[in-house]
Amino acid sequence: MNVWLLGRGELRRRHDDVLQLERAFLTDRTGLHFVNARSSEDLLALAESRRAEQQWPVLDAEWISPVGTDTCDDLVWQNLESTLDGRPDTFYSTAGFEAGNTLSGTGELAPGEAFLAYRFWRPVRVYAVQLRAFQADFHPGRPVYPFQVARVGVGCSLQAGMSLSYGADASAPGTSCNYRCFCTTEQQTLVFDDPMVGVYLVICLKGFPQQQLTDRLHYAAVSGIRVFGEPISSPALENELSCLISRGFILDGRDAARWLDLRSAQEHAAPMHIPEDEVI
User: Fold this and answer.
1) Which domain of life is it from (predicted)?
2) Helix H segments across 31-143?
């Protein structure tokens, strides 16, 4: 076992050395700079992913359907459906962004922003979301197309108070804080401070540091998303929440979670009915 692991590590180091030489050659010839991952970031992302797998259930991908995005390079072959098929060779890609095409106040970030929206088939309690950046083995230098910042939101409608902005302000109702992301092809885990409940999932990405060699535009590509969550356990409470949503009540992920916890507590605290002839 140890010999096999050492051999595998040595093979990977040689592979990485060849890749870095190829990238150095391309940089010298074309002036294109590659975004490189660090092994420590890979290990940290992998550790966080395994911790999430031990702590929460993974929601079946069949429960999730794509709604839409505000930027896409190819609506046929690089759409949001590709992030749910479980295949590492398919991916969603943003359209290209030119240098300087960013929102104000975050000069340290690369160009680019994207909004991705999904829907759950039924109300779900969400604990965390994972995103995986795509590595294009078919491009010279095998570049990774990562994102520098991610924000995730959950709500009962797309207008339920979720922050759809890319700014670095404090966490808005129904959304997570802004997560700094790594340049890695490992799953990156975005955890909510408290579980959220809803039927919509939104993901905001900002800062795409990798340029494509052919057009020198900045892109981000996502090969998969994974949601840690579970359906509401009580059918009665699920139906009650679904009725509230259908009647137009505006509930963000935190509001819906608080409502569900309160109703669950009331349901468990309801006094038991004891027949009068059994009362002492």
Assistant:
1) Eukaryota
2) 39-55
User: Can you give the CATH number for the domain in which 83 is found?
Assistant: 2.60.120.260
3-class DSSP state of 246 = helix
Q: Which residues of 38-65 are buried (b: 16+ CB within 10 A; e: fewer)?
A: eeeeeeebeebbeebeeebeebeeebbe
Q: Pairing between strand 92-93 and 221-231?
A: antiparallel
Residue with tokens 């669950």: 264
Burial 124-146 (b: 16+ CB within 10 A, else e): bbbbbbbbbbbbbeeebbebbbb
Domain-located, residue 22: no
228 CB-side CA count, 13 A:
23
Q: Considering the domain boundaries, does residue 70 fall inside one?
A: yes
Q: Determine the structural domain holding residue 40 and report its residue range.
A: 30-100+109-268
Task: List all residues 6 or more positions away from 144 whose beta carbon is below 8 Å from its beta carbon.
Answer: 35, 37, 133, 134, 135, 136, 183, 184, 185, 210
Structure tokens of 84? 């749910």
The pTM of the whole model exceeds 0.90: no
Instruction: Supply the DSSP string of 256-267, one letter for each residue.
Output: HHHHHHHHHHHH
Whether residue 162 is predicted with pLDDT greater than 50 in this model: the reply is yes
Tally of domains within the chain = 1
Residue 197 tokens, joined: 């409940």
How many Å apart are CA 136 and CA 88, to the nearest integer?
10
